[in-house]
Amino acid sequence: MKVTLHVWRQAGPAAPGRFVRYDMTDVSPDMSFLEMLDVLNQQLIARREEPIAFDHDCREGICGACGMVINGRPHGPQRATTACQLHMRTFPDGAELWIEPWRARAFPLIKDLVVDRGALDRIVQAGGFITVRTGSAPEANAIPVPKRDADLAMDAAACIGCGACVAACPNASAMLFVAAKVSHLGLLPQGQPERSTRVANLVAQMDAEGFGACTNHGECMAACPKEISIDFIARLNRDYIKAAISHEG
Amino acid sequence: MTPPVAAHAPATPRLVRSLIGKKVIMAITGVILLLFVIAHLLGNLKVFQGAEHFNAYAEGLRTLGAPFFPRGSLLWVARVVLLVAVGAHIWAAIVVTRASWGARPVGYHALEAVETTYAARTMRWGGVIIVLYVIYHLLDFTFGRVNPSFVPGDVYHNVIASFRAWPVSAGYGVAMVVVGLHVYHGLWSAFQTLGLNRPPTVRWRRGVAGMVAGLITAGYIAIPVAVLAGVLR
After folding, report:
1. What pLDDT score was predicted for residue B198?
2. Does A87 lie in the same domain as A148?
3. How many CB pairs under 8 A join A and B?
4. Do B96 and A243 touch (CB under 8 A)?
């Protein structure tokens, strides 16, 4: 199949960027989207041009490294799918594809399609963990967890931190990411001791990073490759309000 | 780069300082304003009971609480509460909007809308339209400046006089559709912002918001429609 690509090319953080057109022929419909970019990069290298920089790691849809906006949709048009798991057969022959990086003040652009998502790491460092000695894994049934809570916590823990929620949000808000991180620990017994300080710190760090505010469009949920629900955002709000009311500093 | 707050600040949730806190202020003041909009509608619908009842209701608002409270005092309490709520609502909206507009300095070539609604996308400018509408509305029925034949105290007459002009009625109709859209997304969002999403709430909150918004729009529009149709004269 043939595809026409318009790829955002930008040499560095301060360099001017622009869309560059690439016409690709002989693209296999069975290629993943990233494999198609690999093939293009090989062609660029053969032509002694600079290959397109893009993030990728596991290519199994579980690591959260890849991510680009394809035709206005983070990770492309297929629901619950990361860019690496997206296949070219998703697109019609002769498709015209606009490929852009995540756009947010909190995600400064490094090169081409690569952005610095360190803001998400700093949010997690602010309290997205439980403070215990790890050691060997404890007996799984030592602390009983209701099935409903375990399922909900697992739904939240499915977040791979790719940042598609921020990229899709009309406000560039990171609420879905923070909601997932707050919820998966807040739903479990092990997360209780630090529950209120955790939500306070994560929210403070989120605001400090310069993300926008949630206005309940729900675009994050539609873009999330793990289909994390905005119900978790309501849970985050509830936890934050509770923490603010009951905090004993 | 901003170092993680855990490293340099004690963990105190600062509700009003945070963006979430501003949304909470917006939700609470929004609910206060929504309750006013509902009460105002129920009062306005008395126009269908005729001039005598309607004017008595308007007078009743001023003598509310008599003989314990002086004339108009409780009305002023309500007005102050509403003014504070409107001020806080708009202040929070401006802070939140500025944060969001600043959060994406470089835009997309295209960002497709998948999940959002027309109501959600028109909240900000819809809010501006509602402010302009309320100014006109006060000039029309409270101050009588733009009313074609304002008679202080004869509320029924003022309503009929204003709505007989079809452009005025049409303008009110459009404004009420904007209010309905604002209420639909606003009420649903208030549930979300205040964290009210436990079952079974989570299942009916969008439906309830839609119903409340629809009834408000339909109820308010019924008045100019009835005037133009000659039902109210």
Report:
1. 84
2. no
3. 184
4. no
Mean pLDDT, residues A88-94:
97
From chain B, the residues in CB contact with A76 under 8 A are: none
In a domain, B8, yes or no: no
Give the mutation candidate from B100, B181, B182, B198 for the A interface (greatest A CB count, under 10 A). Answer: B100
Choose among B13, B108, B116: nearest Cβ to A218. B116
Q: How many domains does chain A have?
A: 2
- Among the partner-chain residues A19, A231, A244, the one whose CB lies closest to the CB of B109 is A19
Question: Is residue B216, in this structure, part of any structural domain at all?
Answer: yes
> Is it the case that residue A247 has pLDDT exceeding 80?
no
ipTM value > 0.90? yes
* Distance from chain centroid for Cα B77: 18
Q: Do B12 and A233 touch (CB under 8 A)?
A: no
Of A65, A100, A135, the one marking the end of a domain is A100
Number of domains in chain B: 1
- What 3-state class would DSSP assign to A4? strand
Report the alpha-carbon distance of residue A146 to residue A137 in Å, rounded. Answer: 20
Read off the pLDDT of residues A194-206 as tens digits, 9 standing for 90 and up: 999 999 999 999 9
| Closest Cα in chain A, distance from residue B9 (Å) | 9
Q: Which of A125, A170, A173 is closest, CB to CB, to B6?
A: A125
Q: Rounded to 5 degrees, what angle do the CA atoms A19, A22, A23 make?
A: 145
| Contact yes or no for A221 and B115 at CB 8 A | yes
Domain of residue A95 covers: 3-100
Please identify, among A100, A129, A148, the residue that sits at the C-terminal boundary of a domain: A100
- The string of DSSP letters for A60-71 reads SS-S-----EET
Do A230 and A128 lie in one domain? The reply is yes
Angle between helices B166-193 and B19-44 (to 10 degrees): 140
Q: In this structure, how many other beta carbons lie within 10 angstroms of the beta carbon of residue A230?
A: 24
d(CA A14, CA B230): 67
